[in-house]
Amino acid sequence: MFSSCVKVVVFLIMVSPLFLSCEKSEGPGGNGSVSGTVTEQFYNDDFSVMVYEMPAVDEDIFIIYGDQKEVGDRVRTDHLGQFRFKYLYPGSYQVYFMSDDSASVLDVKVGKLYDVELERGEEADLGRLEKLSRLDFNDGAARIRGVIKVVDYVDASSWPNLVIDKIYYATEQEVYLTYNKHTFYDERIRSQEGGVFEFGDLIPGEYSVFLYSDDVTGETDKVTLTFDVTVTGLEQLVDLGEIVIEKR
After folding, report:
1. Distance between CA atoms of 1 and 7, rounded to whole angstroms?
2. Contact in structure between 42 and 57 (CB atoms under 8 Å)
3. Would you say residue 4 has pLDDT above 60?
4. For 117-163, what is each residue's pLDDT tens digit?
5. pLDDT tens digit string along 10-30?
6. Residue 85's closest CA among 32, 142, 10, 159?
7. Can you give the pTM of this predicted structure?
8. Hey, where are the domains in the chain?
9. Which of 20, 84, 135, 172 has the most other CB atoms within 10 Å of its CB?
C-alpha cells in the first residue's frame, strides 16, 4: 500500500512540468492571426475639412505581445491598406500605428492603439482603421491663376477727370494668397510676362487672392482688390480672368 502511494506522487511530480511547459505566452508560433485595413484620411491644417481619403499603402503596423514593453513584430500594409500578423498564440495583444493628432495644433504624431484578446486559432479582424494626416495648403494639385492689366494715368490729370496714359500687362506685380481665413498671407508671388500669375499645388478649400492698386481718387495711397475663391476639386483650375489695377 505504501509503495503504490509513492508511485502516484512520483508520477504527478514528473508530469506536472510537462503541462507547464505546454503553456505558451503571447507571440509567434500559434495558428491565430490579427488583421485589419488602414484608411488614410487627409485633412486641412486645422482638421476642419477632410480633403480626401485613400488606402494607407506601405504603412508600418506594430504589434506588442502581452505585457511586453518592446515591439514584438512589424508588418507593412499592402496596396489596399491591409495587414495581417500570422501564427500567433492565444493571449493579449496591442496593435498600433502612427497618426497625426487632430487635437493638437502642433504637427506631432501619436500612436493609435488597439487591444486584442486572441482565442486559440482565432483570426481576429480589426476592420477599418483610420490614420489621420494633416496637409499644408500647398500639398495638393489644384491651381488659381489670372492676368493683371494696368491702366496708367497721366500724372498731371486728377480725379475725376483722369486721362489714360497707357495700358499694359503687369510684370513683377505682387499677388498674395491666403488659405482658410488665416490672419497672415500664406504665399506671395509675382506676375510673369504677359501679366500672368498662378498659385499651384493647392488643396481644396477656401482661398483669398489679393493685390494692391493705387487709389486714383486720392483719398488713400492704396486700395486692396480681393477675390474669394472656393476650390472643390483635387486638380481643379480656377481662372480669375483679367484683373485691372490702376496707377498714377
Report:
1. 10
2. no
3. no
4. 999 999 999 999 999 999 999 999 999 999 999 999 998 888 999 99
5. 333 344 444 444 557 899 999
6. 32
7. 0.80
8. 26-134, 142-247
9. 135
C-alpha cell at 93: 495583444
The cell numbers describing 14, all together, are: 514528473
Domains 26-134 and 142-247 share a fold: yes
Q: Which CATH superfamily is domain 142-247 in?
A: Immunoglobulins (2.60.40.10)
What does 111-140 look like in DSSP terms, one character per residue?
EEEEEEEEPTT-EEEEEEEEEEEE--TTSS
* C-alpha closest to that of 210 among 231, 233, 184: 184
Q: Residues of 77-114 as b/e, b for ≥16 C-beta within 10 angstroms?
A: beeebebebeebbbbebbbbbebbbeeeeeeeeeebeb
Whether the predicted pLDDT of 2 surpasses 70: no
pLDDT digits (tens, 9 = 90+) for 61-111: 999 999 999 999 999 999 999 999 999 999 999 999 999 998 876 678 999
Q: Would you say 84 and 31 are in contact if contact means Cβ atoms under 8 Å apart?
A: no
Q: Cβ atoms within 10 A of the Cβ of 198, count?
A: 14
Phi, psi (5° rounding) for residue 11? -60, -45
Structure-block grid coordinates of residue 180 = 482658410
Superfamily, domain 26-134? Immunoglobulins (2.60.40.10)
Which value, in Å, is the radius of gyration of the alpha carbons in the chain?
Answer: 33
175 has pLDDT over 50: yes
